[in-house]
Amino acid sequence: MTSLSRGVVALTLACAIWVLAPASAHAFGTWNGVLGQKAEHERITRTLACGAADKEGFCLQAHSLDQLAGERGYLGGVGEPDSVSETLKGPASKHCDNGDFLDGSYPLSRANATFGLKACVDRFQAYLGHAVARAGGLVGADGKLNLREAALDQNGRGIDKCAIYDSVAGEPPSPRSKCAVFANLGRAAHIAQDFWSHSNWGDRAEPAPAGISRSNPPGLNNPGSPDFLRFPMESMTVPPLLATGCDDTGLDSRNPFASKKPCDNRVFHGTEAGLNKDKGVIDPVTGTATGPTTSRGRLYGGANFQAVVTGARMQTRLLYHDFAIAMRQRYGLDRARDIERALSRDAPWTTCKQVGGGGKGAFSVPRKLPDGWRDTSVRGSVVNRTGVTPDCESAILESGEGWGQLPARPGDLNFSAFGQPGGTKGRISFSFPGLGTVTLHWDDPWIGSSKYTCSTSSELKCSATKIAGAHGGATYAISRAGGSSRAARASTAVAPTRSRPPRVVARSESAGDRSAAIARGPHAKRAEVGEVPRGLDLDPCGERRDEVTEELGVFHDGIGCTRVLKKLQQAFLAGRDCPKGWEDEPGVVIGSGADEAAGLPAMHLCWTRSDDDDDDGDDDPADRRRGLQGFTYLPDLFLN
Predict the structure, then answer these.
(1) How would you class 210 by CB atoms within 10 Å of its CB: exposed for 0-12, middle for 13-18, buried for 19 or more?
(2) Which domains are delineated in the chain?
(3) pLDDT, tens digit, for every residue of 121-144?
């Protein structure tokens, strides 16, 4: 190789180091397996995962969290500030650098160091302000979810990764509100996490005899959040010895030809040496931090690295908490809760807690069946005879183009899916409180026989019947394994055993009888019937409404007492009997003045003669509670 060639190679290598060095050392690591990084920012941000050991009262489902935390091959909101393009253009405030200071003779005054820190803090506050503002696009003032703004899958072709723009830098805003929120939250989280890694706020200095110096600044060993990283910031209290490292990772600092560099004689960020504690192995579930590779992080057996990782995860949770509170203040409690749901759920348009599968449109918004695809669709009609309102646990599209319908409100059970040309296959699971789970399966291939089955826990039974004349579709009937629509074993304390009267349907009384019953109160009874269940106040409109409705487990906000009574009475008057093994008790009247005011007939309790349902040898509140539940066996009384 000629001398000229060697010179060109040397120059090329020097320029390569000059250009690539910033992306390698600006912050907690973002890349995985590149330049010693192990996706530290992503792993810290996964404290917001629903499976995180240190999560608090909120969490993000898997694919929504990926947009914020990133994943292999995708930086996400928190990682984008470490992209090569952004590292090259700066500024250092994206990483909370250039707030360096040391007591005594030092190139920067305390005021100048605080000024550098404030640039980082102002940027942090601005990102969170943008996040709150863009969050309103997810749910309108009328409470309706904006599907296009909230969907991860925009075109039925799989999850679309969010483009992470920099709103503070004046870049065009992300077109989708959910992406815009995650872009701003991620950039704010990056700053907060880098503050812990790049400063002496939460670490300790090397012990004596090293002494305090530019290469060993004092550690403040703070475990809690600084006030200037809360949102909105109310004050900025800066400890006199607080320092963040001088940014020695920029182009001017890494220029191999420069005779003087900006961070000479200053507390510097560093790569392996310096103030940073950027690199090591972080467990994304527990937050356990091991194997630090920077000198400051290795101090005290790696305790410095663990301390700043713990602090950064805590700061990330606080950031999301403050963001949620700010939304409630701006949009009101109900709308803010809907927005939080749109952000945290992968498919916020359905009550199903999890949506997924390998189907092409597994995460797509349910849409009208395309023309010509009717023969490749499956429609599930679900009949619930349990009397219990189930929760949709999951909807899995194993193959197919997308959903036509998914449960959208409590009590919804029907669903549909379609596929072209290969057909569709999947399952949907419901949990029935106190009874167990049911999973409905379908397999409707383009060629071959369709199969519809269901699996249940022991307390339930299910059957699947193909809908006549349909290429794809079935009616799934779900009931209790014992055959009754409420648990036949449920009981309440009752009078001594008496002969069973003829089965009757709850019936109207004359106005005089009803007035007399109301006057007698909620424990009203007829002498020839015997004692009423002891300790029960079955007046949902009276003073004990909250207590009774909690035991019934079927009332919810927004349903008035009169409406509940009307639903009960309409169902009984339609000719429905008490469950098998239960007797109609005409002596107990449901309701007091509300039914009379509404012109509705009085209602009666269904009861059993057993007074010790849980076999514990006594008649206790648990027995009576089951008796109350036994009365509310009729399906869909309250939510339809």
Answers:
(1) exposed
(2) 3-230+237-342 (no CATH), 354-480 (2.60.270.50), 511-631 (no CATH)
(3) 999 999 999 999 999 999 999 999
